[in-house]
Specification:
The chain is an alpha/beta fold. The chain is built from 28 helices and 14 strands. One of its GO terms (cellular component) is synaptic vesicle.
Length: 775
């Protein structure tokens, strides 16, 4: 090696100026080098190394001139500026989506005469004829039956309104699926499984593009307004990530570095949850706990800042007109009792069972859609599901209203002015009222169930079954569909039912020792709305397996510190029960269903296999395709590229001595050869390709060589054949590797890629290894 170095130095000294030029890509940067093809995984180590080099160069130049110092300051500030823009853009879009969805949901039932752009609530605000008992009725708001046939009561009113409700629902859903199919196929679904995969380093071109953002924003409003059992909260994470990806193109250091871009996308995920629930802290924890693959401390601070800006922007828009960021913000003040932890844990068990059932049923339905002719007719599927949903939802009050309004209704506690059927109580004296009767027997604020409450209970039980069935078949259709709100609605219904049962039990048996301390004079025994909130958290946790972030989001929704313990008990119980029945969350199940190369950090590898069991080539396979550091021509390398589909090639000293020199990416190799043929004079098919540091002796008549050492990774990660796969999997997870080379005494024996590891893990778990579709 020392001799070779001396030869290189001497040859550089005596080489004449007119000798054939060797192209060195280190001096002339070729456009496209260092980028990645679609459906490929980024090289995290290489991207972070590039960023460190860039920082080092900026720091060195900043000491030389004032201009360079100002550039260094602006470079450091650019990350915070980007977070500010992401927060502003995402908050504004979320506010627009909320306003439009609220208006279009009400449009299915009628229109405001004062201005068609007013929703039902805003239309009746200025009316003097509105009463507390019938606050939704005012002369300015007309149902479709009143406008079209002029009837205000009777069966004609019901039939016309029923027909118009179904027609509007079908129109909205049809427009949504047609727009998605025609302009942005990636705009369907929730987007969180794909964002998790992208944050792990996978490239999906167009998934976070401008067309996806535009179509997702429009169709999300249409899908939510159609009355399908879906929510907008999950897709808002996708919308925020689209905003972040588009804005990254205006900042060079994020545009040119895929790892830095993923730090921004992690922050954008926090922004999406922040504007969805009005929970900035919960959004940051959601990004950290649920979606992010690489989350340094710097990203934590920036995520918090971006989520804060987004929440402030949404608050400034005030989409619901109540100075709140969500429709179902509530405040509870009644304390809970220690024995109530038993029903809270029961709700946690229900949430875990629902989560496990939903994941299995939804994945089975999606697999049926994928493997049968059902998947060939996405428009028909959406229209049929919408038709069935609308037909069955309209007769029941609690399925007819939007899921957000339903959750708001279930979370709220009954007050003196409430006219809801859920507040249909009867006092012991026998008087019945739609509102809460302030007096009760024995001086207690006790409330016995009246006819209105019994009606509401069986309607809620029916709504629970319908919500569960329709959520299973709706999630995964070719329209934007979130899972947070439907899951919370299922849990809120179950919680409210249990809460009312517990309330009636405590009231009717308040003299017993177990309930004696629960009911105090002038106060309610139990808050059914609290049970609805705990049930909502339990069911959402069972489906998504969120814990810390879930509790914080629910805390930010309610503003009640005293309810942290019930929420924690329900969330943990839900996760334990759901994990006992299946380890995957709904997002991980969809990642596996779609075959994305996602290496789950939570999944433990417990098998005693070695690198030699997983590496390619296997026994009986042809030897691994390699390049030699010298001795190959342009034609031979181009033929090897054409005959294979590998993402890169190991470089060895020679075929006879396969000692590892480095690794070169296929894309870099293709771009470099094309650039050499275009710009380097005299390059032909017989031109030699060199990965060596020094130039070998060449005859004067030989064609000029193409030197590609600058695109060669001289320090690829290597393991020996005896390395345990448990260690190899940890290396891939923690360093985000694309591939790892297997050597023995310096000799190259094979290669292990991320796809090989995923296939091996699937095989060990008795799953189909060919389900991993992408490289």
């Amino acid at each position: 090696m020392h001799c070779c170095t001396q030869i290189c130095r001497v040859s550089a000294e005596w080489r004449p100026n007119n000798s054939p030029k060797l192209m060195d890509l280190l001096d002339d940067t070729v456009p496209g080098i260092g980028t990645y093809e679609d459906f490929n995984t980024i090289d995290w180590v290489r991207e972070k190394s590039k960023d460190r080099d860039r920082h080092r160069e900026i720091a060195n130049k900043s000491k030389q001139s004032t201009v360079a110092l100002l550039f260094s300051i602006s470079d450091a500030f650019s990350g915070w500026l980007l977070m500010l823009l992401i927060g502003l853009m995402s908050g504004a879009l979320a506010g627009g989506i909320d306003i439009a969805a609220h208006w279009m949901t009400d449009l299915k039932e009628g229109v405001c005469l004062n201005g068609f752009w007013f929703n039902h609530e805003h239309c009746c605000w200025a009316s003097n004829e509105t009463t507390f008992q019938e606050r939704d009725k005012c002369p300015q708001w007309k149902s479709w039956a009143e406008l079209m046939v002029g009837v205000s009561e009777g069966p004609g009113l019901y039939v016309v309104n029923y027909f118009m409700y179904v027609c509007w629902a079908l129109l909205f859903a049809f427009l949504a699926v047609i727009l998605v199919r025609a302009f942005a196929p990636y705009a369907c679904g929730s987007g969180i499984p794909e964002i998790k995969t992208i944050l792990s380093g996978f490239i999906i071109r167009g998934y976070l593009g401008k067309w996806t953002l535009i179509i997702k924003t429009i169709t999300l409003v249409l899908a939510v307004s159609s009355g399908l059992s879906l929510g907008k909260e999950g897709p808002l994470v996708h919308v925020a990530c689209c905003c972040a990806n588009i804005l990254c193109h205006f900042f060079t250091k994020y545009r040119r570095n895929e790892a830095k871009k993923r730090e921004v996308l992690s922050a954008a995920s926090a922004v999406g949850v922040s504007v969805a629930f009005g929970a900035p802290i919960g959004g940051v924890l959601f990004s950290l706990e649920e979606v992010s693959y690489y989350f340094p401390l710097k990203t934590l601070w920036r995520s918090f800042f971006a989520a804060l800006v987004a929440a402030f922007t949404l608050r400034s828009i005030n989409p619901f007109g109540n100075s709140r960021l969500v429709l179902f913000y509530v405040e509870f003040h009644t304390p809970w009792h220690l024995l109530e932890l038993i029903p809270f844990v029961l709700l946690g068990i229900f949430g875990g069972l629902w989560g496990a059932f939903f994941i299995r049923a939804n994945i089975a339905w999606c697999r049926l859609r994928k493997n049968t002719s059902l998947g060939h007719y996405p428009v028909l599927e959406v229209v049929v599901v919408t038709l069935l949903t609308a037909l069955l939802a309209f007769p029941i009050e609690y399925t007819k209203m939007s899921s957000s309004e339903l959750i708001s209704e279930l979370f709220n506690d009954c007050g003196l002015l409430d006219s809801s059927k859920l507040c249909g109580y009867t006092s012991n004296s026998g008087s019945t009222s739609g509102s809460v009767n302030a007096t009760a027997a024995n001086g207690l604020g006790a409330r016995l169930a009246g006819p209105g409450l019994y009606t509401a209970m069986w309607q809620l039980a029916l709504a629970l079954v319908l919500k569960m069935v329709f959520t299973v078949v709706t999630f995964g259709m070719k329209v934007p569909s979130g899972l947070f709100i439907p899951s919370m609605a299922v849990g809120a219904i179950a919680g409210r039912l249990l809460g009312v049962c517990m309330e009636q039990l405590a009231i009717r048996h308040h003299e017993r020792d177990i309930f004696r301390g629960w009911c105090s004079p002038g106060a309610d025994c139990i808050t059914p709305g609290l049970y609805a909130m705990v049930g909502a958290a339990a069911c959402l946790g069972g489906v998504t397996r969120m814990t810390v972030s879930l509790v914080v989001i629910m805390f930010e929704l309610t503003g009640g510190l005293e309810y942290i313990v019930p929420l924690m008990a329900a969330a943990m119980t839900s996760k334990w029960v759901a994990d006992a029945l299946g380890r995957e969350s709904i997002y991980e199940a969809h990642i596996r269903l779609n075959g994305y190369p996602f290496l789950e950090a939570k999944e433990e590898f417990r098998h005693k296999t070695l690198a030699t069991d997983v590496m390619r080539p296997r026994r009986g396979d042809p030897p691994v395709s390699v390049l030699t550091e010298s001795g190959m021509t342009v034609e031979e390398v181009e033929r090897l590229i054409a005959d294979t589909t590998y993402s890169g090639f190991p470089v060895v000293i020679s075929q006879q001595s396969p000692r590892l020199v480095g690794f070169v990416l296929r894309r870099d190799l293709v771009i470099s050869l094309e650039n050499a043929r275009r710009h380097q004079e005299g390059v032909v098919s017989m031109s030699p390709i060199l990965f060596t540091e020094c130039d070998p002796p060449m005859s004067p008549s030989a064609p000029p060589a193409v030197k590609l050492r600058s695109i060669l990774d001289l320090s690829p990660f290597t393991v020996t054949v005896h390395t345990a796969m448990e260690i190899v999997v940890d290396i891939f997870r923690k360093l985000g590797l694309r591939q790892c080379l297997v050597i023995q005494n310096g000799r190259l024996l094979g290669i292990i890629t991320k796809k090989d590891i995923l296939k091996h893990m699937a095989q060990m778990a008795n799953r189909d290894p060919d389900s991993i579709l992408f490289n």
